[in-house]
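Researcher: Structure prediction, please.
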Amino acid sequence: MSEIAARAAVPRHRLRLARIVPYLLLQALIVIATMLGLRLLEPHDPDDFAVSEFSLHEAGATRPVTLPHFTASRYSLADPPLYSGKFTFKPDAADTTWSVFLPRFSNGAEIAVNGVAILDSRRDPTANRPDRNTPEIAVIPPSLLHDGSNDITVRLFVWGPLRGFLDTVYVGPDAALRPAYETRTLLFVTLPVVFSAWQSILAVILAIMWLMRRHEPVYGVLAVAMVLGVVQAFLTPPVPPATSSRLAAVLLSSAPIESALIVVSTVLFLGWRWPRYGVLLFVPGLIVIAGGLIAGPPLPRILFLLLGIPTVGLCLVLTAGIAAYAVLRRKDVASFTLGCAATIVLTCWAHDMLSVFEIMPNERTFVSRLSYSALLIAIGAGLTWRFARALNQVDSFAGQLVARVREAEERLKASFAREEARARAAALTNERTRLMRDLHDGLGGQLISIVALSERGQEGATITDAARAALKDLRLVIDSMDDIGGDLMLALGSWRERAAMQLRPHDIALDWRVATPQGLPLHPELRPWHVIQIVRILDQAVTNAVKHAAARHIAVAIETRDDGQGPYGVISIADDGKGFELADEGTSPTARGLRNMRSRAARCGAVLDLGSDTSGTRVRLQLPQVFPDSDAAAG
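Model: Predicted structure follows.
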């Protein structure tokens, strides 16, 4: 088993090695390309107008120096180093505007021509931070220039913790110096402002995304990191001798804290859990803040140099390592882009450290803040890629959901069609069954009576009456099959004609009265078998009045009532006959007729009330508000 495991481990090890070697080679190429890019992007100053030979008066001693030059002191505000030099003003250039151009210096500079100050960088708050690389240019008033040799002095104010630095000074026609100044301004002033504005917009977007998706803290962490970067970019520290150590401490500490937040966001972005001991990354920045709150300058700057800058480098190394590990494990675009961007920023940070410790001679150009935009681009690209992937997943899910809904809809339509066909067939079968039953109960009985009477040799009149009764019943069934649209008044109108014809030979008057204008309510659920049951109840009531009550008048009243729960119809039939005994539930024809009437009313969901005395018989049929679908309503 151990040999099998060892054989299985070898391909996995080779696979990881095959992944990491190309990635490391690519990062090495990125480092080389970044260094070459820094060299190629270095602005070219007009060397024809360079003034580099100066005499330096510092710490009570005077000595010749050649620019660029690093001062010996780190703090010199009361007695700043004084650089004295000369430049030649050509007589043929008297009509040309001349200027003095300072590409780089730290921390503040004051320039005087022939003893008159023409430039003081301390008046420009953005020009006194070493990491800004802000150039300065000043036009020399023509009245100060003399034909031939002219004096120029530069007082360099240094407030640490790094040694002062003065780059080559350029004096010449403004038209020749201005392009170099504008190029440096574009690279080291305008672009950082643009990137910082982009960073602020990204912070707002990330904050909104975090507010909408609280369960993903990566957006909130990134928003805080972006806000700290914007604060560091736009707020400038006070220029000595002004003292405001708290603001300076916050500005200086924002870089290590911002870098630590970037590490946190990288871990969260990759879906990993942030370890508890990771809070140690925030300790250096908090120490710088505490130092600034407790003591004044230059302690915060010293703490930043000793703790803040190494923390920034450590965070960049961690970010690059985490991204590399994610690339090896996941091989996704976001991790790859983040790793490449971290390599670029880490290379620029190393370049700046070589400048800080003066390992690179005559060099004091800081590019870390400028290269930090690459990391922002990577983060924005990663979030955009993640957002686009989420949208693609949502679109794919939505497409699948639409397809499934369509399939379910088609299945439901087919099921509804089958159920409708089944219901239609069942309804047709039920109607056919009811029709057969009604024909059997009515017409069938009448035909049997005719046959029996014929076989017994009865008189023709009796057979004729039976045939007429059969024909009447057949017409009743046929009429009940007509589509009356739920209007029972149409069926009652046909019944009125048949009842009048039935009563006319017996000389019985029919009094027809509709108490309400609308007659009876409409019932869309009304079926033919409902109509048959109601008409048979009315026929039975009229037949009883003709055969058994010896009535002379029959009154039919139709009305619609409403007891608060909805309208319902009422049909009343009253005669002036002799009446009968309701308690008789025997086997007499009258008793069987009453039972049939109650049964038919119950099957329709109606309520039948009967009343009879010596003044006549009263039948009251209260129709339901909604007719039942099944004739099993009788229970």
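Model: The chain is about 55% helix and 15% strand.
Researcher: Thanks, that helps.
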